[in-house]
């Protein structure tokens, strides 16, 4: 028998997606929660200490919310390819007046420390992306009272998540902005060719877990189609990027309304992991960037920061899903209201 999302946690069925790197912050999570949706903290890219502080800020609101963890994964890093990429980036670094860091070969995004924090101060929801966490971690979080969710991109990944013991899955379509949560296949080589509702229906037929649909949901009609296909809720990221509560930087905000950016594309150039954003000069110049997350992420971080400081949209990542043109400059509560089920 198919399970359902607990209504007390997921309210009107709208989730403000965890968007690491700035956009997802306590004000956005709080605003989404106060509007009847669910807000998320993105734990990726930040220290365990910073996560702990943000966690306390959201607990103080008395609202339900979630925390998303990047799960470290050994993807067979090609160190030679990373070092060659570093050399190719040197002219960009010289132009921007920054130093390229040495590669951080062993980096787990402080996953163990962040997990410990969440086990001590348990949020209502914990989600995972990039890989399956150890079964013991899921069991400990569930025993502590957390509702657990895994990001999946295929029916096979959903089956693996169900076998692991999570409570629900986010079904992420390739049209989603930001990083792909794929972990069983290369999303550039094996991307689902159908629509989001078709992917939801395929996963619905494979598992009995509650489904949250994500990817390219730009209008309420898109959300309704995903729900009709079997999703219990929709998870939106790009729709919240232009809200005043989001921590989206000014360069990113301007690019989302700039007619010069007329398409999105997937790339590994910025982080070494496949992600979708507004296609810009950096993506075109380094279209063959190597796999290597998070090593590439930290390698390009100074370049991206310098580009943002200089107001250059062609030197930094501009994550966005295919429905970016439908996003508006409006409060998060209005976004939630538009997409509520």
Automatic annotation (TrEMBL):
A molecular function GO annotation: monooxygenase activity
Domain of life assignment: Bacteria
Entry keyword set: Detoxification, Flavoprotein, FMN, Monooxygenase, Oxidoreductase
Gene3D superfamilies with a match to the protein in the record: Aldolase class I
Pfam assignment, any one: NMO
Cofactor (UniProt): FMN
Catalytic activity: 3 propionate 3-nitronate + 3 O2 + H2O = 3 3-oxopropanoate + 2 nitrate + nitrite + H2O2 + 3 H(+)
Matching PANTHER family: NITRONATE MONOOXYGENASE-RELATED
Family: Belongs to the nitronate monooxygenase family. NMO class I subfamily.
Protein name per UniProt: Propionate 3-nitronate monooxygenase
Lineage: Bacteria, Bacillati, Actinomycetota, Actinomycetes, Micrococcales
């Amino acid at each position: 028998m198919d399970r359902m999302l607990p209504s007390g946690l997921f309210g009107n069925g709208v989730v403000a997606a965890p968007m690491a790197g700035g956009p997802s912050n306590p004000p956005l999570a709080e605003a989404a929660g106060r509007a009847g949706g669910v807000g998320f903290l993105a734990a990726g890219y930040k220290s365990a200490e910073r996560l702990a502080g943000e966690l306390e800020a959201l607990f103080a609101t008395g609202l339900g919310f979630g925390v998303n963890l990047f799960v470290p994964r050994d993807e067979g890093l090609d160190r030679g390819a990373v070092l060659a990429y570093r050399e190719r980036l040197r002219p960009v670094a010289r132009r921007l007046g920054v130093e390229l860091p040495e590669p951080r070969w062993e980096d787990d995004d402080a996953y163990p420390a962040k997990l410990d924090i969440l086990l001590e101060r348990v949020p209502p929801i914990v989600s995972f992306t990039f890989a399956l966490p150890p079964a013991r971690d899921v069991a400990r979080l569930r025993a502590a009272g957390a509702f657990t969710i895994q990001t999946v991109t295929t029916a096979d990944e959903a089956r693996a998540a169900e076998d692991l013991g999570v409570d629900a899955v986010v079904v992420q379509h390739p049209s989603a902005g930001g990083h792909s949560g794929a972990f069983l296949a290369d999303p550039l080589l094996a991307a689902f060719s159908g629509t989001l509702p078709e992917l939801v229906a395929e996963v619905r037929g494979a598992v009995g877990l509650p489904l949250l649909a994500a990817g390219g949901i730009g209008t309420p009609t898109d959300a309704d189609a995903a729900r009709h296909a079997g999703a219990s809720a929709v998870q939106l990221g790009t729709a919240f990027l232009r809200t005043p509560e989001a921590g989206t930087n000014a360069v990113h905000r301007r690019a989302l309304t700039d007619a010069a950016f007329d398409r999105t594309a997937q790339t590994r150039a910025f982080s070494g992991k496949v992600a979708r954003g507004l296609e810009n000069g950096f993506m075109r110049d380094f279209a063959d960037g190597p796999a290597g997350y998070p090593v590439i992420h930290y390698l390009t971080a100074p370049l991206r920061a310098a580009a943002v400081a200089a107001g250059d949209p062609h030197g930094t990542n501009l994550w966005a899903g295919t429905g970016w043109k439908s996003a508006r400059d409006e409060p998060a509560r209005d976004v939630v209201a538009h997409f509520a089920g």
